[in-house]
Amino acid sequence: MTITQGGQPAGEPAAGQAKGRRAQLAGPRVARKRDRRSSALLISGVLAAGLGITAVSLPVPYVVESPGPTFNTLGTDNGKPVITVTGREAFPAKGNLDLTTVYVDGGPNGPVTVFEAFSAWIGGTRAVYPEELIYPTGVTKEQSQEESAVAMTTSQENAVASALKELNIAFEQKMQIAGVPDGSASSGQLLDGDVLVSINGKPITSLSVVQTELAAGNGAPVMVVVDRGGSSVPATITPGRASGGRFILGVMLQYKFTFPFDVTISLEKVGGPSAGLMFALGIVDTVTPGDLTGGKHIAGTGTITPDGAVGPIGGIAQKMHGARSGGATMFLAPAENCGDVVGHIPDGLQVVRVENLAAARKAVELTASGADTSGLPVCTSN
Question: CA 291, CA 95: separation in Å to the nearest integer?
Fold first, then answer.
């Protein structure tokens, strides 16, 4: 029998009233069950949303590289000339020889989140790498900054040396021992601070002299003479072998230079060795009459040795995008980075492959002359 609120069958008042009350009580009870179910679903949704937000904000062991600013080595930074020469006539230059940079998030610089890593991964100008590929395990922010500062100082000294060699300006160059690992071929014979003088009677003017002599001896003992506190000290050393098969003395070396004039490079909050090539070109332009660039806007990157060899760097795809955003139309890229260049060149940017400072200078001068630059070396896919 159907019970409706406010009506009841005749002859069953008590039962009808009872059923009516039960019906009235049952109605609100069903509503409360529905309310509880809705509340449970709402709470579950809020909880899921909260967990989702927490998940995308969790730190992940990745490093994100993105295009950073460019700095004109012929210009100024914070009101100071990037390159200042004293003790020799300098020639202010026009145009741009931009060094390029990357922003690095993650690792000792602070964690990146899942969302930041994913958005960088799907973006077109940033790159994501596992943290261990970029930083040693356990390195602190302070250690990373110190290493970057040392690399920047070394690149500046190498840039001066390579620029002066390119211009045939004489200077003094020595190689000093910066460390002798325990158990190495030279352990117990050579000391920190020793200055290499000769190897098998040949004057040591660069690392290549040592490498050439060790290779020629094919592992035979060599006679090394060092300057130790003003005294000549001979040592007979049987070379060790590096993992690649090369013969080595087993010491850490650093160059010591004495230049005929002072070159000061002022650039704040930028570290690492990758500006060496552009510093060297900037120095060449600063100490020679005229404008090396012819007023053109050129950017580039690459480490440099005192002998002028250009070496590979990281983040070149991001540096090319930063260069183009900064207005550059030509980019000088280390030959060893060509694998990372192909497929990542921004529209409107000509990328020239260079192996040394002389080749980079030639490319800049050709551009400055207004001649056809299509024949300059380029990066090609394998």
Answer: 7
DSSP symbols for 334-367? EGGGHHHHTT-PPTT-EEEEESBHHHHHHHHHHH
In sequence order, the 6+-apart residues with CB closer than 8 A to the CB of 153 are none
Q: Is 1 exposed, middle or buried (0-12, 13-18, 19+ CB in 10 A)?
A: exposed
Question: Looking at beta carbons, which pairs linking 294-297 to residues 24 or more positions away fall under 8 Å?
Answer: 294/95, 294/367, 294/368, 294/369, 294/370, 295/94, 295/95, 295/368, 296/95, 296/96, 296/329, 296/330, 296/364, 296/367, 296/368, 297/95, 297/96, 297/98, 297/327, 297/328, 297/329, 297/330
pLDDT, tens only, 205-243? 888 899 999 999 999 999 999 999 999 999 999 999 988
CB atoms near residue 103 (< 10 Å): 15
- CB-facing half-sphere around the CA of 276: CA atoms within 13 A: 30
**What are the phi and psi torsion angles at 362 (to 5°)?**
-60, -40
* Residue 345: CB atoms within 10 Å: 18
Query: Quick one: which of 286, 283, 291, 258 has its CA closest to 164?
Result: 283
Tens digit of each residue's pLDDT (9 = 90 or more) over 293-351: 999 999 999 999 999 999 999 999 999 999 999 999 999 999 999 999 999 999 999 99
Residues 342, 351 contacting (CB under 8 angstroms): no
Please work out, in degrees rounded to the nearest 5, the angle formed at the alpha carbon of residue 152 by the alpha carbons of 146 and 155.
Answer: 140
Instruction: Name the pTM for this structure.
Output: 0.78
CA–CA distance from 179 to each of 188, 209, 301 (Å)? 12, 19, 29
Gap between the Cα atoms of 335 and 332, Å rounded: 9
Question: What percentage of the chain reaches a pLDDT higher than 70?
Answer: 84
Position 143, amino acid: Q
Please give the Cα distance from 302 to 323 (Å, whole number): 14
Backbone angles phi, psi at 161, to 5 degrees: -60, -45
What is the three-class DSSP state of 55?
helix
Cα Rg for the chain, rounded, in angstroms? 34
Rounded Cα–Cα distance for residues 163 and 284 (Å): 6
Nearest to 173 by CA among 149, 200, 197: 197
Neighbours of 105 (CB within 10 A): 19
